[in-house]
Design goal:
mainly alpha; two-stranded antiparallel sheet; 77% helix
Length: 310
């Protein structure tokens, strides 16, 4: 009996294994078309871009293309105009992310309090993030910045102030202001979620012990929000480093505001340098992947912290 049972056990396992595998494949089969579509839409174009980046390829002279290795990447990193666009990208991203985080934190602290009409105020504050990026840039360019009929100069004229040309005088600041207006609600939502996940018993204990609002914010709230601040900064950097709409719409890349995505567009569609534009695009993607990796780590740590509390 023992030998028969022992011999029968492997056969039962062997029968179960194929059925489990078939069940697993049957479960995953509906996802295969979506996976194939995602690979075809995202990965194959990136592979093609990567291949083109190793060629000296001008669209006006297609028969003169030749393999140049990493020459395009060297030119991207050494050319003065391209290096300036990289520096502009870094400066634009850092300024917008920092300003959006500070303003988002202030608004999140405001919305964390209970007051009449809080739901309406929250909806109004979220609205800028829902505006189409091109429409937001056009709004700032024509409705606010225009030196003849813009709102800013209208208010200054009402109080007898100067009538500056905002885009010509402060071009990079003009682009940054429009992006800060658009991305502050995003930071506010992330930080508001962090504020509402605080341990209320700990907060009440601190107040009972005589801690002031500033001490509670400095020693309890701010350390608790550290992960959320990191997440907002990383996610904002991923999107803002790739921003094209505001630069193209407000300044058309002029006056020293051309960032790396705009330079890629300029190299590809105006200079027709496919290889050089592809190399610059690959560098943008690599930078975004590096930032996204850190963002995923922060998200994972937040999930672990929430799981440990539960």
């Amino acid at each position: 009996m023992t030998a028969t049972t022992t011999a029968a056990a492997p056969s039962v396992r062997a029968e179960k294994r194929p059925s489990n595998r078939m069940r697993a494949w049957a479960t995953r089969a509906p996802l295969l078309p979506a996976l194939i579509f995602m690979i075809a839409v995202t990965q194959l174009p990136f592979v093609a871009t990567l291949v083109i980046s190793f060629f000296d390829w001008n669209a006006l002279y297609p028969n003169a293309r030749r393999f140049t290795g990493f020459a395009n990447y060297t030119e991207v990193l050494t050319d003065a105009d391209l290096r300036h666009s990289v520096w502009t990208t870094v400066l634009l991203t850092a300024a917008v992310v920092l300003a959006s985080l500070v303003l988002g934190l202030a608004l999140a602290l405001l919305l964390d309090r209970r007051f009449r009409g809080r739901g309406i105020v929250r909806t109004l504050l979220i609205a800028p993030f829902l505006v189409v990026p091109v429409a937001a840039a056009l709004l700032w360019k024509h409705v606010l910045y225009n030196p003849e009929y813009g709102l800013f100069n209208g208010l200054l004229h009402y109080v007898g102030g100067p009538q500056p040309d905002w885009i010509s005088n402060t071009p990079l600041l003009a682009v940054e202001a429009s992006l800060v207006w658009q991305w502050t609600p995003f930071m506010m939502l992330i930080l508001l979620a962090g504020l509402q996940s605080r341990d209320q018993q700990q907060m009440e204990a601190a107040r009972v012990d005589g801690a002031s609002d500033w001490q509670i914010f400095r020693y309890l709230t701010l350390p608790h929000l550290r992960r959320y601040l990191e997440l907002g900064a990383l996610l904002g950097s991923i999107y803002i480093v790739q921003n094209f709409d505001a630069v193209f719409t407000i300044t058309s890349g002029g006056l020293g505001t051309a960032n790396l995505p705009y330079t890629v567009y300029q190299s590809f569609y105006q200079a027709h340098e496919n290889g050089l534009a592809s190399a610059a695009g690959v560098l943008v993607v690599i930078g975004s992947i590096i930032i996204a990796t850190f963002a995923l780590r922060v998200v994972s740590s937040l999930f672990r912290e929430e799981a440990s509390r539960a």
